[in-house]
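Exercise 7.
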Amino acid sequence: MNKKNALKVQGLSKIYSKKPSLELKALDNLNLEVKEGEIFGLLGPNGAGKTTFLNILAGTVIKNSGNVNVWGFDLDKNPREVRASIGIVPQEVNLDAFFSPKKILELQAGLYGIPKKERITDTILKIVSLESQADSYARSLSGGMKRRLLIAKAMVHRPPILVLDEPTAGVDVELRQNLWNNVRALNKQGVTIILTTHLMHEAEEMCNRIAIINKGNLAKVDTTKNLLDSIKTKKIIFKVEKIKEVNQNSLNGIKFSYNNNEITAVYERKKHKIDEIISRIKNSGMEINDISTVDGNLEDVFIDLTKS
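Solution. The predicted structure, written as tokens, is:
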């Protein structure tokens, strides 16, 4: 069964211009599709256009051209429906210090015009594990709790799509894990998640598919697995008894580097086999004590795609 698009973007452009001669293309003809029910990662270096893109979805920045369709609604024709279909969790913690989580969610529901009897405040507090802090002052919450309260705030109108902008910025490891468990639980309930992050291992662990944006353009979009499989090089580290130089003849693209009693070999995965590398070390008269391999990660793909 084909899943419908939660988000479809065609030819999206945004130009900031102080003078006609000083045009900055924040987004340049961006095309993107996010499927219903997936956890979709949006990666890119600073200034790539991610924030502009999210601000257009949120309605705080007006695009120059292109089409944005959210949950079947056109941003130009149905802006209210678009806003109702999406919940955006910002990077900045913007909470009233003297309100309790419960009060904050009730107020937010009021802003969305949700009648009192249709509000699900207690359910949302449970989902983000804040039920026992429901009546505490927001200022007394820890950093991780405030993050979760931001997610709760974005959920009051039950949007089918949740956008998380750098959700774990400044959050410690344990809280990060807790936050991701919450996000996975929401996704299991059918919420489509779009997230931006600077942490590559986070995207690798969380996302079904990833789009890498660079200079307002889509550099690549693919499943996380395919992106990782596209890494061309592999690295092996050998601990040896005594270092000797490997014969440089016919290296055929294998690069060796030496450090104390360690030799690192970097080679193309499709071109060479691990046995061949081991033979080269042994033929140079070295005794191998230990071998460890380093598989490439998303960071390698990212660097490869975003280097100018």
